Amino acid sequence: MKWINQKIGRQLMFAFYAVFIALSITSAIVYTYTEQKISQTDATFDDLRERRTNANALAYEWSAAQSNVKSYLLFGTPEMLNAVKTNQDEINRLTTWFEQNAIYTQGDQYATATRNLYDDYFGTAVPLLRQYVEQKQEGSVDEQFVDPKTLASLSNGSELFNSDGTLKGSNSQIDGEADTDGIEALLTNYLNVIQTEEDEAKASLLNEMRIAQFIWLSNLLVLVIILVLLVRPFINRVTKQINSLSRDSAHLASGEDVKELPLPKRRDELHTLTASFNQMAASIADNKVHMLAKNEELQAQQEELVAQQEELQAQQEELEEALEITLQSEQHLKYRNELTETLASRETLTAYPEIIEKLVSITHSEIGALLFLDQHDVRSTIEYGMTPDMVEQLIHEDQSLFHRARVLKRPVHSSKQVAHESPLPYPYYMYEVAVPILDPNEEKIIACIYLVRYRDAFTPEQMGDILSFSHQLSLSLMRMGIYEKMIHEKNKTGQLLNSIREAVVYIEHESDELLVNEPLMKLFPEIQTEHQDESNLSSFRQAMSALSSIIDEAEPFEQYIEQIVEQNLPKDSLVVSIRARSAYIQIYAEKIQINNVWVGTMLVLRDVTKETESDRMKEEFVSTVSHELRTPLSSIYGFTELMLNKSFEEERQLKYLQTIHSETGRLTTLVNDFLDVQRMESSEQRYQMSTFDIVELANDVTDFYGASHTTHTLAFAGNGPIMIDADSEKIKQLLNNLLSNAIKYSPDGGTVSIEVQNQDGFAEIKIRDEGMGIPQEAMSKLFDKFYRVDNSETRKIGGTGLGLSICKEIVKHHNGTIDVESTVGVGSTFTIRFPVAVISTILTYETE
Hints:
Blueprint: H1 8-75, H2 78-101, H3 105-138, H4 148-153, H5 181-253, H6 269-345, H7 352-362, E1 367-374, E2 377-384, H8 388-396, H9 401-408, E3 412-417, E4 429-438, E5 445-454, H10 460-499, E6 503-508, E7 514-516, H11 518-523, H12 525-530, H13 540-548, H14 554-565, E8 574-578, E9 583-594, E10 597-607, H15 609-645, H16 650-681, E11 690-693, H17 694-708, E12 712-718, E13 723-726, H18 728-744, E14 750-759, E15 762-768, H19 803-813, E16 817-823, E17 827-835, H20 838-847
Parallel strand pairs: 12-14
Antiparallel strand pairs: 1-2, 1-5, 3-4, 4-5, 6-7, 6-10, 8-9, 9-10, 11-13, 14-15, 15-17, 16-17
EC number: 2.7.13.3
Membrane topology: Multi-pass membrane protein
GO molecular function, one term: phosphorelay sensor kinase activity
């Protein structure tokens, strides 16, 4: 307790923790006790609820069993017998549960009585009735109502009946229903016991809740006692001591003397504060005496200080004058330095407004201007404090100081009296100076400095500053001219590189400087992604490394670049593919020499995708033509040779002639496809445009294919007329190609449907098949010439790969669209859309 009483905070925390611990302990006890009782009561209620539920279920099953036995006795159906067996199994399960879980005497009696009734009813009575029903169904028994004597005569009847049909131990005859009154009475007693137990559990729970409330009220009482015995005395003691200190502090502040305060018994902060306050009060009283004595001494010293202050004030005025001169010199030097730095660092005209402003400040001028000359004319002016009229007058008047300086090519100055009506602030004299700025190389005027002062002329020092800055400005203008020429040459070089259509990379071997053009960035955006600006390409190796990441054959490319870096220029060009063979690039290098010195290398990257693709298509064309033409020609040649050299019966000759005719038609189709592609590529294809009903045309094509192909079912749907402007023969060729593909690539048969409808002003034709489908990776090249899906199934089907390419050209010429949706193994849907002709709308209205 001694340690606690040393600090007010410890005392407060002790009271807080005492209250908190008391609340926590009592709350935990009440919560644990209440939770335990609630859990016990809940378990008791669950057990009683289960017993009541099972007892009711058992009574229900007995009632259902008796009802099902009566139904079985009346109707004798197997369903009724199965229902009785189901009731028997459920009664046996519930009776077993009561036998295993009985905790009350009534429960034991109920379980025993139920088991005895179960054994008698299902062990003897039910089998007897089942035997009676079976004999009745066999015809051995023929009775409208059950006769107890008949039951007594059965094999199991002697166990229940006497020979006269009366029950053993009874004078009444059996009516087929077991007596369950005793069981119901035991059930009622059992349910009453359960209800009694539930009421007792509820009463017990309420009693425990009252005990918990009592404990909680006791807890609140303990809290109030702690507050009254510990907290309230402590607060009163602290408040009383603080009030005393506050009252005596106010007396001290007003200059009154105070008595020493009694120290608290506890050595806490209040004890320390009271002791310090007593010490402070005693010290203030002692200091009061000393201050009165020193006050007189200070008055004498003050008179002496007044005399010294007057002397110091005179010295301060002298120092202020010297300081003002120093500050002026420092500001002048600062302006000179800033002007020098500006002239040295700025490279365009944007810096010169700041220059003329500082020059005006240094020379204490009122207004000024910088005039830049281009041959004989003033190219631009930068003025400070001058109006546009004043600048115009300075430039165009022949008697102006600016024109005198241009003629003499040396600094000139003048002075003139200012008229009284002038708006200038000093109506006395105006002093002008004009200093020409000469080009050191050609001795011609490239600029001029013009400054004006009022009241005072320019001092020699100021004129020296103006001449000095004129020389610096001359060097700055010359440097700016050189820089502008360099920028111009750089821009010209960049425009020359960008004007080259091939991608170009130039490397300067000595400085490792790298120049690229815009076609390189367009051809290889990956380089621009890594280096956001082409001027930021740090080195040739880094640029080529970024390029190598998209090249398929990286190793030969890197070897080629390494030869260029080692200045061992390759003689031959290199062709590589990029982005998974989506494009092909030809690379070659040229040596750049100046005065027979190898200064750099120009690397040219040329897009040869079209040439490579053209060569590939030529090879595929030759391969396709040689393969597709060889097959029908071989058949025609073989069958004609057989017919020329041998004699066959008429039926066989007809078969051979049909084969020759079919192969000739196939050959004709191939040649027509090749000719169509050639005409389309040379823009020589001719179209005979007319207006016709696309529904009728599509229906005719469908009927033709439906008659000639029995392995497929062709379904057509379309309501016409839908008129379009097109070449009917080309549209028929389009539909023939698509229907032929739908049938050809559905080798297992199936349905090919053609649907034509007017969709938002377009004639929409959809051709669906149930064939092998098209892989997703082949969609982008599906309409390319000579392209065919390469898999094991399509290799068995002949074709040139020109049909869909011709379809696309026909659709494109008619301002239409063609799209395809396909799922491998499910089928494909081709959708063609043509603009509807205006006449189709008129015809539609007329038919309606």
